[in-house]
Amino acid sequence: MSDLTAAPDVVVPQDLSEVRDWVTLLKPRVISLVVLTGIVGLMVAPGHLAPALAVAAVLCIALGAGAAGAINMWYDRDIDARMKRTAARPIPAGRIEPGAALAYGVSLACASVIIMGLATNWTAATVLALSIGFYVFVYTMWLKRRTSQNIVIGGAAGAFPPVIGWAAVTGSITLEPLVLFAIIFFWTPPHFWALSLFAHADYERVGVPMLPVTHGAKETRKQVLFYTLLLLPLTLLPTLLGFAGWVYAAAALLLGAEFLRHAVAVFRDRQDERGHSLTGDVPAKKAFRYSLSYLGLLFIALAVDRMLLG
C-alpha cells in the first residue's frame, strides 16, 4: 500500500534554480540590513524626496551592495571552495562561471552609481561608489587576507548606507549621518567576531587571519565585549544631538542592555579553552544572531521615533 502521507518529490525547474544562484551572488541577507539602514537615512534626513526618486535611491543602494557582494564572491572563490560555510556558493560549486559573476557585479555597480546620480544627486552617487570600492578593493582584496584588523577597518564599507540615504535627500553630508555611520562601524566587530569564534576552523584552514586565528579565542571574546561597550554610548548620540527623541533613546537603552548581556556571556564562555571548536548553541552563536536583530531594531526605532515625534 502506498503511503498517502508521503510528500511528493519537489523538482525545482532549472531556470528557477539558476535565477536563485544569481540572486545568491548578491548576498540577499546582507542586503536586507543595508537597505534598512539606507531607508532610515532617507527618512531622518531633513527635506523631501519624491516617492519615485526615493524608491530609485533605495534600489540603487541595494544594487550597489549586491554588486559588491558578487565581486567579493568572485575574488574569494578559491577560499570559499575550501570553507564548509561557503563551499556551496554558486561559483565554487561550479554553477556560475567566475568571469560571468565578475561581469555581473561590475555591471550592477556601474548601473547603481549612474542611476543614483541621475535620480538624486552626484554626492549620493559618489558615496555609493566609495562604499562599493571600499568593500571590493580595501576589504576584500587588501585587508581580508593580510591583517586581523580586516573586519574593523573593512567594516566601514557596510556603514555607508545611511550616509548615502541622507545625501540622496540633502545633497550633503553633515554630522548626523556620520553618527549613524559610526554606530554601524562599531557594531561590526562584535557582530563579525562572534561569528568568527564558531567559524574559526574555516578561516584557519584557508589562512584568513581573523582575530581568533591570530590572537586566540580569549582575546577575541575580550574584543567582542570591548567594542560592545564602545558601541552603546554611541547609540545615544542621535538623541543627545537632537535628531532623535525619547522613543529612540528608550529603544537604544533596552536593545543595548541585551546586547551587553550577550557580549558578557561571550566573554565568560570558556568552551573554546577546552577544545578547538565551539559546539551547540553557544553564547557566540546567540550573540551573532542577536546582533543582526539588534541593528535592524535600532534603526527601526529611529524611523519610528521620527514618524511619531517628527
Order of helices and strands: HHHHHHHHHHHHHH
**Main sheet properties:** none
The CATH superfamily of the largest domain is: UbiA prenyltransferase
Shape: globular
Number of β-strand runs: 0
- Tell me the domain tally: 2
H/I helix tally: 14
- Helix percent reads over 70%
Quote the beta fraction: under 5%
Question: Poorly predicted ranges (pLDDT <50, ≥5 residues)?
Answer: 1-13
Q: What is the typical, i.e. mean, pLDDT?
A: 91
Task: State the CATH topology of the largest domain.
Answer: Tetracycline Repressor, domain 2
Give the N-to-C terminal Cα separation: 67 Å
CATH class of the largest domain: Mainly Alpha
Cα radius of gyration in angstroms: 21 Å
CATH architecture of the largest domain: Orthogonal Bundle
Structural class: mainly alpha
List keywords for this structure.
globular; mainly alpha; transmembrane helix; Tetracycline Repressor, domain 2; disordered N terminus; Protohaem_IX_farnesylTrfase; transferase
Task: Please explain how this structure is put together.
- With 310 residues, this protein is mostly helical.
- The protein has 14 helices and no strands.
- The chain folds into two domains: 19-172, Tetracycline Repressor, domain 2 (Orthogonal Bundle); 174-310.
- The longest helix is centred in the middle third of the chain and has 32 residues, at 175-206.
- The termini are far apart.
- Mean pLDDT is 91; it is low at 1-13.
